[in-house]
Write a structure and sequence with these properties.
It is a single chain. The protein is mainly alpha-helical. The chain is 71% helix and 0% strand. It contains 26 helices and no strands. It is extended and about 130 Å long. The chain starts with 18 loop residues before the first helix and ends in a 6-residue tail after the last helix.
């Protein structure tokens, strides 16, 4: 033992690794194999990805070896710096190669640009020479034409001198040298001249006519002011006489302790304190010309609307009809007039202007547009694909909600799939407003809100059996079928399984019913419990369901249903207990 003192002891065997170290090493190896396999399957395994994997492994080793954490972190940092430097070098090399390639191609590009500039310069010279030649020929032709035409004496104001070489207004230089374009432009000017001549006869009147109308208007205004002053004087005189007559009548019915003269004096003293004499004003209503003036103003308003409509100013006419007093033009008759207008395909139809003005002024009119006009307005807007107008009208509640309106919007969503979500949301809102519960729930189902629709049907408390069957036929999804045939928040199911199956057998979606029965059948005794607890569907109904299952290649399920129905018949006959008999009463009803 003494001979070994002072010498370093070398372990004969390697240190025994602990169990935790073994587990860690195994997990590291599994992690490396898993990541390499994933990247290899995806075809993304390369040197960079391999470096990333082993970098992650290095991080895990650093976290595990707490005693050497500082040293290992420094080593990893140096490796990361070296790798980043290599990547940056590759990036710089790529940029330098691209820049070198660009510099090498610059001389060739410059030669091409110079050659193209010379070609364009030659072409410009040719065009300028052709322009000078054509202008000289035109000038020669104009001189010859001017020499042949005799001079015409000017009777009107002197015209501005025309430069023959100047461009024709509304035409380019190329078109002015084209005979076909010149003929077309001449025809356009002829049409415009004829239009102006026609407008001069129909749309314009001489200035003297305006002066005459101004004189008549001033005279009418003056007569109106004089009549109003006379009317006010007569009303004041009538009020005074009525007060005096009432005072004399009341004095004659009194005890006459006060003389009539004193009574009239007191009345005259209090006259200035009277602010509102309702009796005298109501008595004078029959003589008040305001009602007559109102009728005349309404007639003038309608005549003004007719003038705008006949002259083709449909937009102004639509606004005028929407703002009509007492809403005399906010009706279907006015709508029919706008609908009868014929326009070209690329023009906005005046009917759409009418509905826009009608909806925008519905708030000012203090009442929404009625149901008939609302329906026609929605149809008109959707026919021109203006769904945004309908959304605005519905959300601002400027219309009268109806079930027909919801149907129109929903049908549009079926024709235009990219607007289907918007139309279903609008339809749901409209159906709720007009208490069409089944269609509101259907819109929710079509939007995928199955659970929300089921909750809505239970909360409304007005859903009937026909409503549930309507939902099942229109939107037969597995989620809806399961929701309607199971309890909901401790409330009984809306439909029995037999009811749901018989309803689906009448549609093209019977496959959903067979899937539901298959799911129940896989649960063993559950199908028997379903048939036993179904107090709505009769045995004949289940026999019909079994026959349909057999006809659609679900023979095992058909045999199971028939065996359950037949066996339950036997149980009822043998059983002597009243409770057991009551369970199967519905089978023999």
């Amino acid at each position: 033992m003494k001979s070994f003192r002072g010498k370093a002891r070398t372990p004969v065997l390697p240190p025994i690794a602990s169990a935790s170290d073994k587990r860690f090493l195994i997990s590291i190896e599994e992690f490396i194999d898993t990541e390499v396999e994933k990247l290899s399957d995806a075809g993304q395994f390369d040197a960079e990805q391999q470096c990333v994997i082993y970098g992650q492994v290095f991080d895990k080793v650093i976290e595990y070896c707490t005693d050497y954490k500082g040293l290992l972190t420094s080593i990893k940092k140096e490796y990361d710096t070296f790798i980043d430097a290599i990547k940056q070098g590759e990036t710089d090399a790529t940029h330098l190669r691209a820049k070198l390639k660009t510099l090498a191609s610059e001389p060739t590009t410059l030669v091409y640009h110079r050659k193209r500039a010379a070609e364009l310069a030659d072409r410009i010279d040719i065009i300028n020479k052709d322009s000078i030649r054509i202008e000289s020929q035109l000038q020669k032709l104009l001189d010859e034409e001017r020499a042949k035409t005799p001079p015409v004496e000017e009777t009107g104001p002197p015209l501005k001198p025309i430069n023959p070489s100047a461009l024709i207004p509304g035409m380019t230089r190329e078109d002015s040298l084209n005979i076909e374009a010149l003929i077309k432009h001449q025809q356009h000017l002829e049409d415009r001249r004829q239009t102006l001549n026609a407008d001069m006869k129909t749309k314009y009147v001489p200035i003297q006519r305006k002066q005459e109308l101004d004189i008549k208007l001033s005279l009418a205004v003056q007569e109106k002011e004089e009549a109003e002053s006379v009317n006010r004087a007569l009303m004041d005189s009538y009020k005074k006489k009525r007060v005096i007559a009432d005072t004399i009548l009341s004095w004659s019915r009194s005890d006459k302790s006060v003389t009539l003269y004193e009574t009239l004096g007191q009345m005259m003293a209090k006259e200035h304190e009277i602010k509102d004499d309702t009796a005298s004003s109501s008595a004078f209503d029959d003589l008040d010309p305001s009602k007559v003036l109102e009728a005349e103003s309404l007639l003038e308003y309608v005549e003004r609307f007719n003038e705008l409509f006949v002259s083709g100013q449909y937009k102004a006419a639509a606004v005028s009809a929407a703002h009509s007093p007492r809403g005399i033009l906010r009706n279907t008759e006015t709508m029919e007039r706008f609908k009868a207008v014929v326009v070209t395909n690329d023009e906005i139809h005046p009917l759409l202007w009418f509905f826009e003005a009608l909806m925008e002024t519905s708030t000012a009119a203090k009442h929404p547009v009625n149901a008939a006009l609302t329906l026609e307005g929605a149809k008109c807007a959707l026919s021109y694909d203006h769904i945004e107008l309908v959304v605005h009208w519905v959300t601002q509640q400027r219309i009268t909600f109806s079930e027909a309106l919801g149907d129109v919007i929903r049908d549009y969503g079926e024709k235009e799939p990219h607007h289907k979500a918007t139309c279903l949301a609008l339809g749901q809102l409209i159906y709720r407003k007009c208490s069409s519960l089944r269609k509101a729930a259907l819109c929710m189902c079509l939007q995928g809100q199955i659970q929300g629709a089921i909750g809505y049907t239970y909360q409304s408390k007005r859903f009937l059996l026909d409503d549930y069957l309507f939902l099942l036929k229109e939107c037969p999804t597995a989620e809806l079928i399961n929701g309607l045939t199971k309890e909901w928040n401790d409330k009984p199911a809306a439909l029995s399984v037999g009811q749901a199956m018989l309803s689906l057998l009448c549609t093209d979606h019977k496959e959903y019913g067979f899937q539901m029965l298959e799911n129940i059948y896989k649960c063993g005794e559950t199908l028997e419990q379903v048939i036993l607890n179904d107090v709505v569907c009769t045995p004949e109904g289940w026999v019909e369901i079994a026959e349909e299952c057999s006809n659609n290649n679900y023979r095992t399920m058909s045999e199971k249903i028939m065996s359950i129905v037949i066996s339950q018949d036997g149980v009822v006959e043998i059983s002597s207990k009243d409770e057991d008999a009551k369970i199967m009463d519905h089978v023999f009803m």
